[in-house]
Amino acid sequence: MLKTKRWWRRIRAEYLNRARHRQIVSLLRAEVFGGAPVTLKRMGNGGADSVYKVFLGKDAAGILRVRNPYQKPRPSALNAFLALSQSSIDREWAVYTKGYPAGLTPQPLWRCEDAMLCAHLPYRPLRDCLNAKNAPPFLPLLLRCAALLDRLHKTGLSHMDAGLGNVLVDENFENMTLIDFEHGPAENFSFPAQCLYDHLKLLNTALQYRPAETIEGFSLWADNFRSGLAGDSSARAYFDTPAAEAALDESKLPLSRLVNIWANPEIAAHIRALLAGGPVRQ
């Protein structure tokens, strides 16, 4: 029922925005594709923007994001951390402009006031690939995502929606990129707290989408996070195991920061509530 309502809200919002949508497509054709006809295929039902795969003939030519004023963000406990009034296109364009040269995002190609086009990559969301036959072990794969976030943070940027659905990976699990920077941080949410929040969101979706065969081992990881929330220093013991050391060697990620994630007072209360009840369903 919830999915049906979400689908209907999306259809209604796109209908109400149809006139502006036609204007944007005309601009795109004229300014990017030399007037050539293009076709659009809508992607997903999440977020407050409309996202389309753009085809030039049979070939994918880019991903178009359109700000739809009739599509409102759905309620979430996480919205308190987000600047929902900020222009999503401005935010997305700014991050892609800085992230692409660093190898972190797709290439930004074109924008207007309320839409932008980026390059299409033949990748899939990581959350949809976790059970693939050639998928690497889950924990090292998760740590690669966290290392990718670290690289983003070193550029002075945060993600604010760093779930496994916003990490794209190629079919061989060799290359990763980040997408969907729709919302920036709420006012007075410090940058160090934003970085910790990104890793928390990654952990949250890892709990939600982990492959079934990893539940036992991953539950141990989550249990130790809960122990840490209660001030139990034994949480560190798990990260001294050979398996964790092997994952650390592969990812070059300082796991100690993840162990201390609950220490930040700006998000400690949210972390306690989130991990006490399991992953937040979005």
Distance between the termini: 15 Å
N-to-C order of helices and strands: HHEEEEHEEEHEEEHHHHHH
Structural class: alpha+beta
Biggest β-sheet strands, sense, barrel:
5 strands, antiparallel
Report helical residue fraction. Answer: 40-55%
Q: Beta-strand level of the residues, as a percent range?
A: 5-15%
Number of helices: 10
Strand order of the largest sheet: 1-2-3-6-5
* Overall pLDDT confidence: 77
Rg, alpha carbons: 20 Å
Basic shape: globular
Low-confidence stretches: 224-267, 272-282
How many discrete domains? 2
Strand segment count: 10
Helices, strands, pairings?
Layout: H1 2-16, H2 18-32, E1 39-42, E2 49-56, E3 59-67, E4 82-83, H3 88-99, E5 108-112, E6 115-118, E7 124-125, H4 138-154, E8 167-169, E9 176-178, E10 184-185, H5 191-209, H6 215-229, H7 235-238, H8 242-251, H9 255-259, H10 268-277
Antiparallel strand pairs: 1-2, 2-3, 3-6, 4-10, 5-6, 7-8, 8-9
Q: What can you tell me about this protein's structure?
A:
There is one protein chain. This protein has two domains: 2-75 and 107-118, Phosphorylase Kinase, domain 1, CATH 3.30.200; 124-277. It contains ten helices and ten strands. Strand 1 and strand 2 (49-56) form a beta hairpin. The chain has helices at residues 2-16, 18-32, 88-99, 138-154, 191-209, 215-229, 235-238, 242-251, 255-259, 268-277; strands at residues 39-42, 49-56, 59-67, 82-83, 108-112, 115-118, 124-125, 167-169, 176-178, 184-185. With 282 residues, the chain is an alpha+beta fold. The chain is globular.
